[in-house]
Automatic annotation (TrEMBL):
Superkingdom classification of source: Bacteria
PANTHER family reported for this sequence: N-ACETYLMANNOSAMINE KINASE, ROK (REPRESSOR, ORF, KINASE) FAMILY
InterPro entries per UniProt: ATPase_NBD, ROK, WH-like_DNA-bd_sf, WH_DNA-bd_sf
Pfam family, one: ROK
Name of this chain's protein: ROK family protein
Gene3D superfamilies linked to this entry: 3.30.420.40, Winged helix-like DNA-binding domain superfamily/Winged helix DNA-binding domain (1.10.10.10)
CDD domains cross-referenced by the UniProt entry: ASKHA_ATPase_ROK (cd23763)
Length: 374
């Protein structure tokens, strides 16, 4: 991740961060449960709650009658406490989304763009869309936590740049943190699309019982993101999940990318607007590609089960749900598991529960998580 050149918009105490994190994990939570989850003293929770209520960061929910005695008044995040923007570079388009403090996407704008367009022109177009959203929803600048950006490619060792896909080669070797910082007035967090995707999937609220998750991103290239014990695992050089290196050894023609599938469909005479418009398995090009993709990623999936023993493995990113499910069905690792006679359950395999805008949603969440110290 590239660190913003601008400071956090909102400085919180460690206790405030703990309480807000619990409120985020549980949509409505009584003070007693906050004490249990955070390890804070009851008196501390009471005083911190008053501080956050005064700041309009949280609100009191409806009274809940529980047995005898006084009703419980749970605490909830205030959705209008703060807002964040997410920017995601998809195949041939950029999505710009606005989310509230509860992680609900309020509005989204889509920009068609040429991947070889000058950087400053692209950023000016993005800024124009963000300005439209700010004016449309009448958001005060002080309530904006910042911007998250999903970029296709791993972080470089200089901590300033991203080794982007070939089609965006002119973005390589550029101090992106400074350039984004010059254009936007809020902090900007930039990370590779796989990390952004797994953050979005894990913190979507769709996986409440999951602690460990691995996501395979099939889009511009092939990559992965890893959540261990509810935290994004980055690795020593912030590039954990950079499995594209393995596929580089196999050769470009052996990478199972959605971009490659779109090119094959175009070559067959079928032009589609984007990944979500890819036809089903009744299309011969698609069915052949699914078999190819399953064969290519199956060894990596088996190794992932052995190395990480996750609760679930997601195939998503730019890969639409019907294609992800087709790959899972084709891989059929449940049969491998039965033949191996394992005495414990295999990880659940699933397409993304968020859908084609997963990276955009994850990007929206980055300013919230960095502010809360998650």
């Amino acid at each position: 991740m590239l660190t913003p050149i601008k400071p956090l918009q909102l400085e919180l105490t460690p206790g405030q961060k703990k309480l807000l994190a619990v409120c985020r994990q549980h949509s409505s939570v009584p003070r007693a449960k906050i004490v249990e989850k955070t390890g804070l003293r009851s008196g501390s929770v009471t005083s911190i709650s008053k501080e956050l209520l005064a700041m309009n960061m949280i609100k009191e929910g409806p009274r809940e009658k529980v047995g005898r005695g006084q009703p419980i008044i749970p605490l909830q995040l205030n959705p209008y406490a703060a807002f964040s923007f997410g920017i995601a570079f998809h195949i041939h388009r950029i999505e710009v989304a606005l989310a509230n403090f509860c992680g609900e996407v309020i509005d989204t704008e889509t920009i068609d763009y040429a991947e070889d367009a000058p950087i400053i022109d692209v950023l000016k177009n993005i800024k124009a869309q963000i300005d439209v959203l700010v004016d449309k929803h009448k958001i005060q600048n002080a309530r904006i936590l910042g911007i998250g950006v999903s970029m296709p490619g791993p972080s470089e060792g200089d901590g300033k740049s991203i080794r982007t896909i070939i089609q965006m080669g002119h973005w390589r070797g550029v101090d992106l943190a400074s350039i984004f910082g010059d254009v936007f007035e809020w902090p900007v967090w930039i990370d590779n699309d796989c990390n952004v995707a797994v953050v979005g999937e894990f913190y979507s609220g769709q996986w409440p019982e999951v602690k460990n998750m691995v996501l395979f991103e099939l889009g511009h290239g092939v990559g992965g993101g890893v959540i261990i014990n509810r935290k994004l695992y980055r690795g020593s050089r912030h590039n954990a999940g950079e499995i594209g290196t393995y596929f580089n050894l196999l050769g470009e023609e052996n990478k199972p990318t959605i971009r490659g599938l779109l090119d094959q469909l175009a070559a067959s005479g079928l032009e589609v607007d984007g990944p979500e418009d890819i036809p089903g398995l009744d299309n011969l090009v698609v069915s052949k590609w699914v078999r190819f993709a399953a064969a290519q990623i199956k060894p990596m999936l088996v190794v992932t089960l052995g190395w990480f023993d996750p609760d679930c493995i997601i195939i998503g990113g730019s890969c639409p749900r019907h294609i992800s499910q087709a790959i899972i069905d084709e891989v059929a690792l449940d049969k491998v598991w039965e033949e191996a006679e394992r005495s414990y359950a295999m990880a659940q395999f699933s397409p993304s529960k968020i859908g084609p805008s997963l990276n955009t949603y994850g990007a929206c969440m980055f300013p919230v998580f960095r502010t809360l110290g998650i």
